[in-house]
Write the structure tokens for this entry.
Amino acid sequence: MPVLTIILPTFNRARFLPEAFASIDAQTFRDWELIVVDDGSTDDTEAVVRAWSDRIDRHLHYVKQENRGAYGARNTGLDHATGEYVAFFDSDDLWLPHHLARCVEALTRSAEVDWIYAACRCVDVSGAVVQSTTFETPAGPRPFLTLETRAAGDLRIIDDSEIVVCQLSHGLYAGLQNSVIRRHVFDGYRFSEDSRVVDDVMFLVRALVRGVRLGYLTDVHVIYRIHEGNSSGSSTDSNRESLARIRRESIVGLERLDRELVLTPDQRRALRRTLSRHYFWDLGYVCYWESGDASRAFQAFKRGLRLNPTDHRMWKTFAACLVRSTYRRLSTPTQHATGS
């Protein structure tokens, strides 16, 4: 049995696959199997996979299915996985050669850790660096880097009881493409196929609540390519409607967590603050108000305020938008019908 299973879901991404396979084959860690799940592609994905099957000197298992979305494809890959560890490869991204070796070494050394992740570097379609590391912003380090950790070599094992609150409030930046995970984390658990883009975030919250342990490496392991086909909406070309779809899906996922999980009071407050932010700012202000849809904007504003009624900034913005909307309505000339 291989030590590690790589799951590569793909849908009409044949143009990215040669670089993806080359990136996988360049890994310094070699004890893996590769499961390619073709999620109903209509391009020449199968031909590309066949051409590379003899070039990669490890087991490559090709599965084609009717389109079920990225999470459905990942679930299919998990059903076929045999390795002790699992890594998910997004067909339009690239792993640096040390990714698997560094993560597997850390997992082997730290038996109490279930999920290890590292930073990504974001580049645009020309290859220019947009963000040198996803662990930092121009304003400074991501909030999760302030969580209490314990060192095991250069691995930082997160021991902080606030890890769930941090994931709900700010994110841990432990994406599937930059992680290596013990396969037992998925025993009895799968991704929700109702979601198209955000269930990795929801899956991680559920995993943390049931006690899954995380650790991170601070060096860059993944090249994340931003382009018009990104399902996450990270492309600068994403329009407001696609962003609204992603935000609505996030809201559905968070509301499901609110109903289904047993959370501490602090965790539930963090979840509802994030829900409030999604409703008010992401959906209401950015997607609706700024595109001129005042009716849907105010519906989203009110939901956000109900979830977090003490947020003074939201109330101030709500009042300003209400004044502007009223002024526009009153200043619009009344149209009178005329007879012919």
User: Anything to note?
Assistant: The chain has two domains: 4-225, 240-330. The longest helix spans residues 265-288.
